[in-house]
Amino acid sequence: MAQEGNGNSSRCSSHNGDNGNRWSLQGMTALVTGGTKGIGHAVVEELARLGATVYTCSRNEAEINECLKDWKSKGFRVAGSACDVSSKSEREKLMFAVSSVFHGKLNILVSLTRP
């Protein structure tokens, strides 16, 4: 595990939800593909917890809607839509949606989908 500072604390030591203002993504925007399950879900939550505004997508509309409802209840700024990123036309729609939501500003891209 990576160490920083005096070597006594890990980078993940703030995993309990209290980031102690050590890390901040306030004002940043992020797109996470495949954000409703597993690692993608964890990435969305961590980015949002650190202050980023996140957009995510999933092929399953019911899953994305359930996750969006949960994230809203946690106070996270997360938007999303159903999208199959293996489809060029759906990727184009996704990019249009993300560009509209973020006013053309995207700082972080996390692609967790496979073709």
TL;DR?
The protein has 115 residues and is of the alpha/beta class. It has helices at 38-49, 61-73, 88-101, and strands spanning 3-4, 9-10, 29-33, 53-58, 78-82, 108-111.
CATH evolutionary superfamily: NAD(P)-binding Rossmann-like Domain
Reported for the largest beta sheet, the result is: 4 strands, parallel
Which architecture name does CATH use?
Answer: 3-Layer(aba) Sandwich
Strand order of the largest sheet: 5-4-3-6
CATH fold descriptor = Rossmann fold
Total number of helices:
3
Distance between the termini: 30 Å
Q: Helices and strands, in N-to-C order?
A: EEEHEHEHE
Q: What is the share of helical residues?
A: 25-40%
Q: Class, according to the CATH hierarchy?
A: Alpha Beta
Q: How would you describe the overall organization of this protein?
A:
Strand 4 (53-58), helix 2 (61-73) and strand 5 (78-82) form a beta-alpha-beta unit. It is globular and about 40 Å long. By secondary structure, it is of the alpha/beta class. The longest helix is centred in the last third of the chain and has 14 residues, at 88-101. The strands form 2 sheets. A 4-stranded parallel beta sheet has the order 5-4-3-6, with helices on both faces. A two-stranded antiparallel ribbon has the order 1-2. It contains 3 helices and 6 strands. It has helices at residues 38-49, 61-73, 88-101; strands at residues 3-4, 9-10, 29-33, 53-58, 78-82, 108-111. Residues 1-16 have low confidence and may be disordered. It has a single domain, classed as Rossmann fold (3-Layer(aba) Sandwich).
